């Protein structure tokens, strides 16, 4: 009635998951200080107009066996509560207060600054570099715009973000037309009734005036390279040292999740699969995926080769992460560029059917979980105003043919690559050489000729 959308799925059960999703994330921070979404995620479920403290909120939820969580991503921020369905009124009232009436006290903001500084230190110390590489590859692929903007608050901004900055941002992005109230495990009419009661006509704490105009920039894929020279010889915390590794991620622009090609890309990502060389398990773990068969089984010195597909409303990124000893970086890069070129080659009927079956089973298994259904319903309605049901998605997956894979890969290979490299980069090929390999017929790097006197 004032632009807020309400979406639900009723699976009868005692518990429900309800939450508010907002079309707001690090990609919208272009005209603001970078790091606001990171702050909002950490400040969620703190004191509000009705609740004096986080403890008071937790005690209220405890009466209904409830838990709460907030997650901010590049394009969405999600406030969610799982609780006994009989406490729906309390839950929606709480969510309305948390999203529209947060107190954002000086003490809470100061605590958040400390938590973020600690998290940033931890991010750089972690043995698993995947979160850091994901940041780097996005920054390389979409330099200085939209999904390429930093998801984590830069250290230098932690002291600059205060209540005024947050209110200015919230007044632009936390408007009803950018929000969805989603629920799983409740009657739709009951949820609509609660939305009317607790969300309709609520005056947000930052006032009803419009903030700065909403950033409607469309993602601009740039490609490029981001390198971080780092001594990785002491990342291990335990008694068995992890060998020193250099990590590489190579990505190419795919497509948005609103395009028809999204499904062939999802099948391709499944077909590439991969993982760590120490991962055990049978076919269900993807042991027949290309990155296991062609890379990890043949090159025992490689520690990891994994395919990832990130998709957004206006773009996407398909990338492969690989790690090996610093002395073998050049060879590792060539193995990955060759795999990209091979994607455009012949696709076996058996491997394609296996990837499609695996994608469908993963989709179905994930949708057994109530919080996952909640996120699926909320995100789809936020982006498209409708929800594709699992059986519709499975039908689309079944229709993918080898020609579809070849078509999407050929289009993708015309783009400049995005490269992220972390560790000892002495033997890293130049960006131009990586680009040349991805434009060649066989994916090989240009040969290095050394002149001996």
From TrEMBL:
Residues 5-154 form the Peptidase M16 N-terminal domain. It is found in: Mitochondrion inner membrane; Mitochondrion matrix. It comes from the Eukaryota. Coiled coil: none annotated. Keywords: Membrane, Mitochondrion, Mitochondrion inner membrane, Transit peptide. Pfam families: Peptidase_M16 (PF00675), Peptidase_M16_C (PF05193). GO terms for molecular function: metal ion binding; metalloendopeptidase activity. Residues 160-359 form the Peptidase M16 C-terminal domain. InterPro entries: Metalloenz_LuxS/M16, MPP/UQCRC_Complex, Pept_M16_N, Pept_M16_Zn_BS, Peptidase_M16_C. One of its GO terms (cellular component) is mitochondrial matrix. GO terms for biological process: protein processing involved in protein targeting to mitochondrion. Heterodimer of PMPCA (alpha) and PMPCB (beta) subunits, forming the mitochondrial processing protease (MPP) in which PMPCA is involved in substrate recognition and binding and PMPCB is the catalytic subunit. Substrate recognition and binding subunit of the essential mitochondrial processing protease (MPP), which cleaves the mitochondrial sequence off newly imported precursors proteins. Belongs to the peptidase M16 family. This is Mitochondrial-processing peptidase subunit alpha. It comes from Donacobius atricapilla. The gene is Pmpca.
């Amino acid at each position: 009635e004032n632009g807020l959308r309400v979406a639900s799925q009723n699976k009868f059960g005692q518990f429900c998951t309800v939450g508010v999703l907002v079309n707001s994330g690090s990609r919208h921070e272009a005209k603001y200080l970078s790091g606001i979404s990171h702050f909002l995620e950490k400040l969620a479920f703190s004191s509000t107009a009705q609740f004096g403290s986080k403890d008071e909120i937790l005690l209220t939820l405890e009466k209904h066996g409830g838990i709460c969580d907030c997650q901010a991503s590049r394009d969405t921020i999600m406030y969610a509560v799982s609780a006994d369905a009989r406490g729906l009124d309390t839950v929606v009232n709480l969510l309305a207060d948390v999203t529209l009436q947060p107190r954002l006290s000086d003490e809470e903001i100061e605590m958040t600054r400390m938590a973020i500084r600690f998290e940033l230190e931890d991010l750089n110390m972690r043995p698993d570099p995947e979160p850091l590489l994901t940041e780097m590859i996005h920054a390389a692929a979409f330099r200085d715009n939209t999904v390429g903007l930093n998801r984590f608050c830069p250290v230098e901004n932690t002291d600059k973000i205060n209540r005024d900055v947050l209110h200015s941002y919230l007044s632009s992005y936390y408007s009803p037309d950018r929000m969805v109230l989603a629920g799983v495990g409740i009657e739709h009419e009951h949820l609509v009734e609660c939305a009317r009661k607790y969300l309709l006509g609520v005056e947000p704490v930052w006032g009803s005036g419009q903030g700065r105009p909403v950033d409607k920039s469309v993602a601009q894929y740039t490609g490029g390279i981001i390198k971080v020279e780092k001594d990785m010889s002491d990342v291990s915390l335990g008694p068995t040292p992890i060998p020193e590794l250099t990590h590489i991620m190579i990505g190419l622009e795919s497509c948005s999740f609103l395009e028809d090609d999204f499904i062939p890309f999802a099948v391709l990502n499944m077909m590439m699969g991969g993982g760590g060389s120490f991962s055990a398990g049978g076919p269900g773990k993807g042991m027949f995926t290309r990155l296991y068969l062609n890379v990890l089984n043949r090159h025992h010195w490689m520690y990891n080769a994994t395919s990832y597909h990130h998709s957004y409303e206006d773009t996407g990124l398909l990338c492969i992460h690989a790690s090996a000893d610093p002395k073998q970086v050049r060879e590792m890069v060539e193995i990955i560029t060759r795999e990209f070129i091979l994607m455009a080659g012949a696709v076996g009927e058996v491997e394609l059917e296996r990837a499609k079956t695996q994608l469908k089973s993963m989709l179905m298994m994930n949708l057994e979980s109530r919080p996952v259904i909640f996120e699926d319903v909320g995100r789809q309605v936020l982006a498209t105003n409708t929800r594709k049901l699992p059986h519709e998605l499975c039908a689309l997956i079944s229709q993918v043919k080898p020609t579809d894979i070849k078509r999407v890969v050929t289009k993708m290979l015309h783009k400049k690559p995005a490269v992220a490299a972390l560790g000892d980069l002495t033997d890293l090929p130049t960006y131009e050489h990586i680009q040349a390999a991805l434009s060649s017929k066989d994916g090989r790097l240009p040969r290095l000729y050394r002149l001996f006197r």
